[in-house]
Each structure stands twice: as structure tokens, then as C-alpha cells.
Task: structure prediction
Amino acid sequence: NAGVTQTPKFQVLKTGQSMTLQCAQDMNHEYMSWYRQDPGMGLRLIHYSVGAGITDQGEVPNGYNVSRSTTEDFPLRLLSAAPSQTSVYFCASSRDGLYNEQFFGPGTRLTVL
Amino acid sequence: QQPVQSPQAVILREGEDAVINCSSSKALYSVHWYRQKHGEAPVFLMILLKGGEQKGHEKISASFNEKKQQSSLYLTASQLSYSGTYFCGTEKEYNNNDMRFGAGTRLTVKP
Result:
């Protein structure tokens, strides 16, 4: 099992550009989440999904969209990148509840100029 | 609503013990502990539930004081591999999908 995979590992964008961060898991987990990690802030939940076709907003959803068409994939879209979105993004999945034993992907380091 | 962790950083020698605290101003349902090594993804350590028992495996254990809204992570006879940043996450209610993470405690274990 590959676990949770994320692509790309690094990305540099210009202000106003859009892009999609990819996340996939092969553990058949129902629950998936996107977090951003900023220095001194800890992890903050952006969006989450409790199953295919079901998504909801987390603590900091503005400027991001998600969809969940399959159990395996949970892409995160940045609509119009801003410097404030410079961060490390982690995708996570879990089996028995949104926060029960989350498995995290390796992360995407995004810089917005 | 973000839990407060203390200390912010700690440096140990191999074999020494450490305690990391996680405090909330709100009543808690659960506390989650993760460890993250530099440049890597967070890795789950354990969950403590309201009314549940103290958890632990080998030399890492944790307690949850519901009255004080505080959890403590105990690292005993630390090893070099324990180095990393430890995060706590707290939930106020069951299945409310509103966990908040602390800013982390950076632990460095030296030979």
C-alpha cells in the first residue's frame, strides 16, 4: 500500500494563478481532510470529506475548493492564489472517523509570489 | 480555541524523561497526539477520550485530566528517535469535526 500520496511536492505560483493539489489514498478510507501548516500556528483544517460526494468546510476554507468524486481522490483547488496561501499543505485520511488515527501524506510546499 | 502547548521547546540527553502539556480553555471530549519529524508528515501517536483510560505504549504514554482540560504526554528514557515536534489536537464534542491543533512542542534528544 502506498498510503496517502500527494503531488506535487513543491510548487511556486504567481499571485492570481490557479492550481490543483492532488491527494490520493489506497486504504479505502471514508474520511479525508486537507490541512495547511504555517509556522507557529499548528495544523488548520481547510476542507474535509466524510465520503464520496460529501464535503464540508473546515476552519480556514476561503480561497479553496474541494470535490470528492471517488473514495480514493480528494483534490484541493486554489482558485486565485494569494501570498497568504504560501504554506505547507497536508492531506490526511482516516477510517473510523474524521480524526481517528489520521494518516497524513508527505505534504506539498506551496509558495505564492 | 487553539489548545496551548508547553513547553515550546525542550532539549534532552538520551535516557532523560520529558513531559509535554496541552491545555484548553474549553471542556474537551478528546485529545490526540501526533509527532512530526522535520520535513515529514505528522504521525499519529494516540487518542485519549473523555472518561477513558491513560494510554501508552512502551516508553511514550499520555494522560487526560478532564477537570483541568489538560493532557500530558510522557516520554520516558528518551531515545534519539524521539526527536521531532509533538502536536496535540483537541475536540470539544464527539464527531463535531472541529478539532484544533496546538502550535507544537519541539523536542530534541542529544546523544
